[in-house]
Amino acid sequence: MADVTERGRSYRYVGPVELKAAVRPGGGGRRIGSAADFDGWIVEQSAAELAEPFTFVVGVDGVLRLAPRRSEHVACAGGDMVLSAGEISFMREADRWTVSEVSNQSTGYCPDVTSWAEVARALDAAELRRPSGFTHEVVFRRCPDCQERNIVREDDFVCVFCGSGLPAAWNVDPTP
């Protein structure tokens, strides 16, 4: 179920059950609640890791969590609900780190593009320069007929699995 909290909508994991079942208790991405947290984390990353985007989630506590790119979002979140999820890249700009790219690309949580506000708040708390929105927005919808999750491309709101029309509003995880 997707709940709306005082922080915004929270998203439940909707991906393959075997991936959630593999999440280790106490696991999860590195919590980045401040500039000091980010500074400690970034120096641990290799040049090869920095060349690729990282997996991120914003927990329901509003805090950014980061993990290597090939990590599952549900593992980064420790199996919990999130306020957003996606991929993020960083680059060194003058004397500080900045976000070069950020998307809501997470087929496990399928967050709406409106989750950007939560990402922006989390990045601001970590004192990271950021773009004004997702640099790559992914529009997720669930087909009301076949129930498959879809990525909408080029504003074509048609299910790629059965050809039915997809709704204009986010509906990936309908309230039971």
Automatic annotation (TrEMBL):
Query: What is the top-level taxon of the source organism?
Result: Bacteria
Q: What is the designated name of this protein?
A: Zinc ribbon domain-containing protein
